[in-house]
Give the backbone structure.
Amino acid sequence: MTGPLVPFREVVLKVHSRCDLACDHCYVYEHADQSWRTRPRTISDDVIFRTAQRLAEHAKAHALPSVSVILHGGEPLLAGPARLRRVCEVLTSAFDGVAELDLRIHTNGLQLGPRYLDLFDEFNVRVGISLDGDRAANDRHRRYADGRSSHPLVLKAVELLRQERYRHLDLGLLCTVDIENDPIAVLDALTELDPPLIDFLLPHATWDDPPPRPDGSPTAYADWLLAVFDRWQEQGHPVPVRLFSSVLSTLSGGPSLTESLGLAPTDLVVVETDGQLEQVDSLKSAYEGAAATGFDVFTHTFDEVAAHPGVRARQLGLAGVSEACRRCPVVRSCGGGLYTHRYRSTGPSGEFDNPSVYCEDLAALVRGIEARTAASLVAPELADPAELAASQRDLTRMLLARLNADVEERDDERWARAWELAAAVEASEEGARGLDEVLSHPYTRTWLLRALEALHERPGAVRDALRLPAYLAAAAVRAGLDRWVDVGYTDGRLVLPGLGELRIGGSGERGTARVRAVEGGLLVRRDEGDPAERRITLSSAAGPGWRPVRRLVVPGGASGPALDLVLDDLDPYRDCFAASAAAALDDRAAADLLGRIGDAWALIGAKAPLRAAETAGRLTTLTPLTGLAPAEPAVGRHGRGALGISVDGSAEELALALLRGSRRAELQALADVTDLYAADGSWEHRIPWEEEPVPFSRLLADTYERMALGAFEPRCLEGVPQALDTLEGAAELTVSGKRLLDLMRKEI
């Protein structure tokens, strides 16, 4: 099996191999593997020491920041306080200076009392308790061997753990699903205890020993869990539920939050009381010896276990699930189900190369949760351009705040003055609006990202960050604020983002100028002591030493909607495209390019008026590039609405570039603020216009772009319906991605 070795970040340490309950659904004692009968009851000092040593070596070798050790059984509390103290002391000592140790214990709670909790408080051992709901539900399986109820003692343990002095140790409740129980009563009983988390677990089952389905329904477990979900929604999510949180996370493009769902590789190993190293414990439900590796802590390292074929099989992600699962659109959320639940001793596939025995339940659960929550999970930016613009602006403001936090740590007086000025500019309504306009300029974000990168690479590098006053001066001028702003200039050039460039000194000259807004323009002084002032008129016309950022304004009318674009060939951060930024254009070249863009706009308005309206709302800034095909645009890596175009090309070619670019810019802007897809590159897809399969991102981008070109060049629509069908069946789409697909179908 290929791929890098996945180190273990979670270890289940069996400290006692017997239990004081006789739960009839227990995979340790009641299922296929009966190896517990030959294990020592309690873990020995030798096993404790060797486990701690091996695990600390493993953490150090892989530079793991933390490792979780879960004390387990049987019932781990039967090991007694002295033995558990020994385990905690040895592990804590071994991990000192190596990695953070996250100690946990999973218990039925019957033995839990202050003597244990005081010990756990000393070593910060967090406690998870198994409880299946109210008394009727819990007593269905969790009883003593003589049939007595365990419920009262479990409740007593939960109440003790809820006390203020122990509350920080509470991990939550683990509940095994039984569809014979009332789902509403179960959830109400659990949430009434106010745990920090509820973890619902499907009972372990395989194709050889399937789960009970009294009414024969193939989705009985999904129906039960969806009833719980509906109640949980109705209650306003009073307690986090891991299963539901995991599905909601994957539907939005995030990771799975539980081993039982999702495609993340497993990173768990089990140490038995005799030091034997085994795979995940639930495999004991499959067959005798299914979890065995043949390794132990005395003669083998954890790396050797991680390389075991059985362990590697659970680390393959998509490649590790069955062919049927790889073709299923919900596999990213369900992950093919728990590995154990795929077991079938006979059949055409391998023992674990099958869908989960809960396959139909998992699909119904994911689809049911999606149907109930899609409206709230879909990003509003998909349907509302104003929301998208606001989210983009918020993203830039977040980067600015992060830059301030990073530079503040350097205690730089120049930055402190600039940040104080920023607060003063934003204090007025006009100033805040002017600052928003400057922050919306796409190359502002490029500046911020470059400044942050420079700080992280060279902690003392604040030069890029100190460009802030130039942005504040541009905001003050836009807002007409009557105040002087000190702005640094380099190479004799003072650049005001989005406004223009003023030649203020000779080549190579650096210094500080003062800028102030006046009606229709701005005043500039070389420095505070220089009484000479230059007045600059903010218009499309150049003046002595002044180069304005040019604009193309096309009024709306019968030929199409209005267009208002900036042609920015001056901004020092405009080099955020794959192609190189062209040198600043002279007046003749700029006029020629703007004229051809105007002609291109007229062509779009005539041939594709709906696309013209769409394009006008998406593009704000054009920048001339070199080495670019005339009909092929480049989308800036940062910021919404920026498009790189060739200085050459006919009106027809530039029209295609504008259409293509507007779609690319929109898709990128959406991807900046919401996940449209996840796990890109895990699958490959066939599209009609390509011979080779492509990743999902390419499939989506090409289809989205071709739809815009279709009205201009109808041949571009060939194959688009088939591509939309492929998109619909893809597992990568998030809820927001599916909403985008709905909008694309409406366009067609």
User: Anything to note?
Assistant: The chain is about 40% helix and 15% strand. The CA atoms of residues 313 and 417 lie 58 Å apart.
